[in-house]
User: Fold this.
Amino acid sequence: MKGKFICFEGIEGSGKSTMLRHTEKYLNNKKIKYVITREPGGTDVGKKIRSILLSDKNKICDDTELLLMFADRAQHIHSVIQKNLLKGVNVISDRYIYASYAYQGYGRKISKNTIEILDKIFCSNISIDKCLYFDIDPKIALARIKNRKLDRFEKMNKKFFLDVHKGYKYICKKNSRKVCKIDANQNINKVKDEVIVQISKILKIS
Ligand code: TYD
Assistant:
């Protein structure tokens, strides 16, 4: 049987990484077959692409950024996602294609049509079963990441994050059947509980 493909999405500081670790513990306890992976950087080649993309020493134009995200994704689909799903292993990815629509589309203002074309050519054989979107007030998210060592994206101005947040809002609405929106402003234990409810529903764990 085919595994399920789930992605976690949200702006930086939304608590996505904490929730992935929590999900990992839960799936281990339940002895469920899964891999947790990420974009960019889910493969050996992808790790190199990620370091190019995230280093603030690199001056990367928006089109290059978009193409590197898709190069990373193509390798990820080929080496990790497809193989595991076919083996019946569930794949949980820290970000997938919605991030390109939100960051490169709404954030960088690359036309939706361009992203859709790349999506169609390189990713149409792999679509998510469900996305858990961690919705947080960008003001709270920015306050949370303030003390981190910031990467090239996290150093962008507030307007960029507001645009990305707006993008996710639109994407969630448009793909409402595939997206489960989780209120990430609430207390962390409540968010954790909601994540487990959703994951167990998607993977049919009792
Ligand atoms: P992420 O690994 O979530 O960052 P962190 O672990 O530091 O929270 O993502 C790295 C950055 O890549 C993030 O700022 C969003 C960006 N990104 C895009 O701009 N487009 C994409 O298609 C993807 C997958 C990520």
